[in-house]
Design goal:
single chain, 260 residues, alpha+beta, eight-stranded mixed β-sheet, globular
Amino acid sequence: MAQRPDTDAFLDQLILTYGPKEFLAAFFFKAVHAAARRGVVLEFGTFADLLHTNETHPESWMPLTTTFREQPGGVTDKTGFVILGRDTKGDVIATQAVRIFDWQDTNFKVEAQSLRFFYEDPARDRRTGETCIVTAQDAETIRGRVALGGGIWYRPDFRRRRLGEIIPRIGRAYALTLWNYDVLIATITQQNVGKAFDKRLGFREVRPDSMIMRHSATVPAGDLHLAIARMTPMQLIDDLFSFLAEFDADVHARVDQRRA
């Protein structure tokens, strides 16, 4: 039987190292409680938890990209983190992961097309015929300390609760204060771009059809066309300011009216 999670335990685990700490603390408090109002309590999990959740929900989630798998992707608890959302019964109903790359001497295009973005050892682990073609003209400018957000999933009965506007922002903000990244990126399917998923996530810079993956572990039998979204730390802070000012503003207004 799953254990009922503690709403504030997640906040107690946050370590704020870089960035505007008081501002980030205010954002985390609002965002974590916004999720709680929607019946979701957050906690840190492991990449094993992420993979297990993915494998047990094939009807609503395509296979997890190897980039967010310990094997063969090479991600560890030192180079990434996982956020789980649980319902009041303690069942996982949402996931989010972020990973950091040190690309001081390389860039996204080189790493993706060499498949090092997907595998710790591409020569050993790549699938037969697997390739990645990056067509985004500015892909070579994605370099330095690069954070990657992904591993996003919501159980179908918890969709349309605006969790996609809450949990990914928490992941991006925590990655900033943890690693002080130069840029954060995400790969988004063309279908989700068509649904304005990138805008709900808060991204302003999106390059449609920027990457084509062939015979990948995610879509073994065909091609996967992806957009690349990117966000600088300043863009993130600006986005979080808007979130603090506007998200659930009607809820706070009703609370204030009841107190008056």
